[in-house]
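Give me C-alpha cells for this 121-residue protein.
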Amino acid sequence: LTQSLAKGSDLMSKGELETAYKIFSTIIESDSAWAEGWNKRATVLFLMGRYQDSLKDIDEVLERENRHFGALSGQGLVHTALNNYEKAIKSYQAVQKIYPSIRAAKVMIPQLKKLIKDQSI
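Here you go.
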C-alpha cells in the first residue's frame, strides 16, 4: 500500500489527478482503516475542485486519526475555498492545538478574520 500511495502522490504532483484518484480509491478499498489513503484522496479531490467530496474524505481521516494535522489544515483550505471562513478558522485552531508551531494557522487565521470583517461592512 505504501508503494501505491507513493505512486499516487507522484501522479498527483504531475497533475494526473484522475489516475491518482483511482489509485487512492483502490488503497481505501484495500484498507479502509488506513487514514493516509483517505487523506491523499481528500487532497486530490480538493485539487479537482470537488470540495464537498474532499470534506467527506477528511471526515473519514479524522474519524480514524483525530489528531491528523494535515487533514485539519486541508479542511481549513476547503472551507476557505467554499467561503466558510468561520469553519476554516475552527479547523486552523484545531491544528494549532495539535501542532502549535504550524505556519499555515498563524498566517490563515488573521486573514480569515479580516475576510469575515470585510464581509460585514
